[in-house]
# Entry
Amino acid sequence: MSRVLILLAHPALHKSRVNRHLLDAVRDLDGVTVRDLYEEYPDLHLDVDREQCLLGEHDVIVWQHPFFWYSCPALLKEWLDLVLEYGFAYGEGGDALRGKRVLTAITTGGPQESYGADGLNRYTIAQLLAPFEQTARLCGMEYLEPFVVHGTHSLSQDAIAAHVAAYRGRIATLCA
Ligand SMILES: Cc1cc2nc3c(=O)[nH]c(=O)nc-3n(C[C@H](O)[C@H](O)[C@H](O)COP(=O)(O)O)c2cc1C
# Structure
């Protein structure tokens, strides 16, 4: 059985339509640890040793967040900058993450059709997530097919429920 660490980065979870439900749907799964980074670090000062220790205890890392300016909210970027340090995650002696798997789980305000060469956002989600994919690869991790929920603002409650069920299924598979 694999242990899955979900790192949620959402600066206003109380206003969330989707991420809040995605997270609630996986909290009780065996082998899953949920960390709400903005709740954990209200002063935005990360405990790097603690975060690295948690990485060591898990096999799969999930970066769950709303898509903000084609990237992640600032605290997850801070987490990447500080936690994935030289000698731990990459470089000489930096093999702590080798062989682990990474899943990006994002929600976007833009609808699916807006992501592509002919759409408003001009690039595909895979292209825009390239920095996350390459970060994972540089650290020797396997970058999984991202989980993406598009068009969050116009989703019906039924559609949200379907995405929530799909997310629970995806995370449960990763735990197996
Ligand atoms: C600062 C900011 C930047 C955003 N940038 C993007 C973006 O680049 N692309 C996009 O599709 N949506 C963007 N959005 C919309 C969010 O992705 C959307 O509100 C979020 O996924 C909704 O998730 P939630 O219901 O869990 O809050 C942005 C929203 C904010 C507040």
